[in-house]
Design goal:
Helix content: 55-70%
Strand order of the largest sheet: 1-2
Distance between the termini: 75 Å
Radius of gyration: 27 Å
Length: 99
């Protein structure tokens, strides 16, 4: 009986180690996925910044920024500029395809 008990205890120990290993692998995978998402967001921001720096046209800058953000979010986006007079400041608003 003692020999059987030792086998059961050894088997239980192996199961505990396996469960802990699986938990750690799941946690590692979750953290990896979070890091990949963060890196992707940073890449999108770098691309938007590069496009913005490459243009002096405010309308083009807004359109590019909204387009890139829309691509990153997987949504259709557009910019509505409301300029009434020549010297008026642009009143730009970004939309996600809905009013």
């Amino acid at each position: 009986e003692e020999r059987d008990l030792n086998r059961v205890m050894a088997f239980a120990g192996q199961i505990a180690v396996s469960l802990q290993t699986m938990r750690l692998l799941d946690e590692t995978n979750r953290l990896y996925q979070q890091e990949q998402a963060r890196l992707q967001r940073e890449q999108v921001l770098r691309q938007i910044a590069a496009h913005v720096r490459s243009s002096t046209n405010v309308e083009l800058v807004l359109q590019t920024a909204v387009k890139e953000i829309g691509k990153a979010l997987g949504r259709e986006t557009f910019v509505v500029l409301d300029v009434e007079t020549e010297d008026a400041q642009p009143n730009g608003s970004a939309r996600n395809g809905s009013y």
